[in-house]
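Entry 12.
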Amino acid sequence: MYISVCGSSSCSEEVSRLAYEVGAEIARSGHVLICGGLGGVMDAAAHGATDFDGISVGILPGPDRLHSSRWLTISIPTDMGHARNAIVALAADAIIAVSGGYGTLSEIALGMKMGKPVIGLETWELGGRGGEIRIVPALTPKEAVELAVKLGSIPPRVSPGLDNA
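Predicted 3D structure (tokens):
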């Protein structure tokens, strides 16, 4: 299973610790981590995955690997800027958002649009139409990964490319 970890390129030590634990748990569970490939949450998650012999893939916003996290197993330059967020969301079977700003919010929204389960760890709180909760909250990194695995194995209710607004 492929799990995207989304979050800000700069973050507090506490958020960094959470992201590291998410990456470690993804690796311990035998899954592949996907991220935006830069600093902050992305770097910490990739570091956690690497420390536990996991695979971490960075989908980079720029045309080269100069600013990528040193913890990535694979780094893919896109030269797409923020548009690469769509690839980060699409490549995943499930998304875990750790804290985050507007870039994280865009990945959350794109993931929802694509029918991906989104798990939140100290991140945005959003409700769907009619009060339906669309971000599944997790209290710990372990719970976030367990939810991602459980919900990511369920086929999406919508198909990418269709008008799911």
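Annotation: The longest strand covers residues 55-60. The domain at 2-152 is CATH 3.40.50.450 (Rossmann fold).
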